[in-house]
Prior knowledge:
Distance between the termini: 41 Å
Structural class: mainly beta
Number of strands: 14
Shape: rod-shaped
Amino acid sequence: MPVAGQIASVAVEPHAQVAPGQTLFTLHDTSRLEIPVAVPVSRALLLAPGLRAPSGGAGAGRSRIEATITPSAVVGGPRWSGTVQRFEPIDATAQTVPAVVELAPRPGEDPPPVGLFCSVELRGGPALPGPFVPRAALYEGGVVWTVQDGKLAARRVETGAAFGDWVEVRAGLEGVDEVIVSPLERPLPGEPARRLGAGAQGPGAAARAAGSGAGGA
């Protein structure tokens, strides 16, 4: 039965005599390829809490972690699509998690050569509940300053995952709360605050809704 693939190694010379059962060559099956991707632990936990790759099944397609693969050394080269199938054990030294991406070339599509270095973009996974606030909005003791009835009010919050310059707030804020994101010097509860652009100057001049956020690698 014919099998397509890429030859990995050849164990015999041309015109050499061979014996029954002797290995002639090793063939890589390219119908499905696996690409290990080292993902920082913090990013991996955003993509897949518990480090369990979302499985297939009814209604599960939206939660899959999709991957776009491009050759590292080729500008404007081919692109392939894949999905994260599983996570390997954490590398305790590097604090990364190998995410194994499975690539199944479409009919008529040439697969990437086995051993090729690639760049992989991961996207998808579950959305974090949020809301998120900038790191700069957090003050000592886990306090953020909000605007209530046009005045400053301190709120103590419980923080969760960090993503770049943003931090998840697990408790203490609602999605409709307005959080001060501009620097404050010696803020006082009850001090008047107005939105940026409304003619206000000084502490509390910049306030905006915290909003909800979503995770992503």
